[in-house]
From TrEMBL:
It is an enzyme of class 2 (transferase). InterPro entries: Glyco_trans_20. This is Alpha,alpha-trehalose-phosphate synthase [UDP-forming]. One of its GO terms (biological process) is trehalose biosynthetic process. It comes from Jannaschia donghaensis. Keywords: Glycosyltransferase, Transferase. The keyword Nucleus does not apply. Belongs to the glycosyltransferase 20 family.
């Protein structure tokens, strides 16, 4: 790697080595996690490691794909490993389990072995280039074993992992065939970061059942001679940047009737997002709507993801059936209540739609954080803001108590919340929005990165 990746900070300081499954191979997009990592590495110097496109064979080591203020490099992965590591163990076992859906676990012979092989290859690549003062910052569930593999390679660097998805409950986690090893994977880190206090509670409860782990008076855990911390770091957004984007955005022509309310949802097409429950709750609201009342339109944008995973094919069919049934029951010649779009839109278009919307439905059944809630708040005009309807099961609910909080499984009360949002007086909308803005703008993406890295730098290597 190039010398430009070397930190110019205090004597003895090292690089930041970031590991993520996805890595920008071209220009870095504005906003989001990718933007935040780029900002950190540009300021501090370092190396960003991600997966290369799958090939027939996988070579050892890293392939440099960019340099400048910091380096970017990829590790190799085969087509078979992509199937077993990514589509298999990561997204057909860990993803549903960590989103509290053990009923959707899909085990295949060889998937865990592929996951372990990729994690070991990444660890060997890091061990070959890491210098003693480098910080190693791992992102998400794709690399739960990397820290343990690094320790077995005698790497003593400070290692942190941030899990962007929820942590499974103590009962759900028992469905993982490798549950006996999960504690040792976590314990190999110095800081194991989670989104919410609720997640920290679940992780701590799991560790309490590990006879080799003990909770120390200072709040740290001790296992196999190593101390580590489990802490919550609720991820934020580039609030100022997103607000400016929303202000400057041209609102698409939606061809709605004058004064017709617009509700919006923006999610990846995923069973964890509660989209079918959301459609049904909106259908309940429409059934209660009085004659002559304004005719709202619910715009749901849900780009397709992971089409090769069976559970995603099923949720797509179920959602299309729900949309068709509700529209068939309530639509008129000049009104389609649900507009369901399965394509990606640019960030500026989404920001403009948020600013135009009267309410946002952010109602996952399980979610690590859900940044759509924060983007919606940042995009609003403070003088005439829309209303955020937020699930209790979104991690964001811990910070955003002034939203209309709902149980997405209870379609009746969910429908009541939609009605309340569309009839909420201006003064109440302004008051709620002002309160929501505080955490969105104070605990933004820069705050998140600084908080995690400060904690990681401050750990004592043991």
């Amino acid at each position: 790697m190039s010398s430009s990746s070397r930190s110019s900070g205090a004597p003895g300081s090292g690089r930041i080595i970031v590991v993520s499954n996805r890595i920008p191979k071209g220009d870095v997009p504005a906003g989001g996690l990718v933007f935040a990592i780029d900002e950190v590495l540009t300021a501090a110097g370092g190396l960003w490691i991600g997966a290369a496109d799958p090939t027939e064979f996988a070579l050892e080591g890293l392939t440099e794909i960019g340099s400048g203020a910091y380096d970017r490099a990829t590790f190799a992965i085969t087509e078979a490993e992509h199937s077993g590591y990514y589509l298999g163990y990561a997204n057909s076992v860990l993803w549903p389990l960590f989103h509290h859906r053990p009923d959707l676990l899909n085990f295949h012979d060889g998937d865990f072995e592929a996951y372990a092989a990729v994690n070991r290859r990444v660890a060997r690549a890091i061990a070959a280039i890491a210098e003693p003062e480098d910080l190693i910052w791992i992102q998400d569930y794709h690399f739960l074993m990397v820290a343990q593999e690094l320790r077995q390679l005698n790497v003593t660097n400070r290692i942190g992992l941030f899990l962007h998805i929820p942590f499974p409950s103590p009962t759900d986690v028992m469905a993982l065939p490798q549950v006996a090893a999960l504690s040792s994977w976590i314990a190999a880190h110095d800081v194991f970061g989670l989104q919410t206090k609720r997640d920290v509670t679940s992780a701590n409860e799991m560790l309490r059942h590990d006879s080799k782990a003990s909770l120390m008076p200072n709040g740290r855990w001790h296992r196999a001679g190593h101390q580590f911390q489990i802490l919550s770091f609720p991820i934020g957004i580039d609030a100022v940047g997103f607000e400016e984007t929303a202000k400057a955005a041209d609102v698409p022509q939606l061809q709605l009737a004058a004064k017709a309310p617009l509700l919006i949802g923006v999610d990846r097409l995923d069973y964890s997002k509660g989209l079918v429950h959301r459609f049904k709750a909106f259908g309940d609201y429409l059934s209660r709507r009085t004659e002559g009342a304004p005719r709202p339109t619910f715009l749901q944008i849900a780009p397709v993801s992971r089409e090769d995973v069976t559970a995603y094919q099923d949720i797509r069919e179920e959602l299309e059936q729900a949309a068709g049934s509700i529209n068939g029951a309530h639509a008129d010649l000049d009104w389609t209540p649900i507009r369901y779009v399965r394509r990606h839109f640019d960030r500026a278009v989404i920001a403009g739609l948020y600013r135009r919307a009267d309410a946002a439905l952010v109602t996952p059944l399980a979610d690590g954080m859900n940044l759509v809630a924060k983007e919606f708040v940042a995009a609003q005009d403070p003088d005439d803001p829309g209303v955020l309807i937020l699930s209790h099961f979104a991690g964001a609910a811990e910070q955003m108590e002034d939203a209309l909080l709902v149980n997405p499984f209870d379609h009746g009360s969910f429908a009541d919340a939609i009605d309340r949002a569309l009839h909420m007086p201006l003064a109440e909308r302004q008051e709620r929005h002002a309160a929501l803005r505080v955490s969105v703008f104070e605990e933004d993406i820069a705050w998140w990165t600084e908080a995690f890295l400060k904690r990681l730098r401050g750990t004592n290597r043991t």
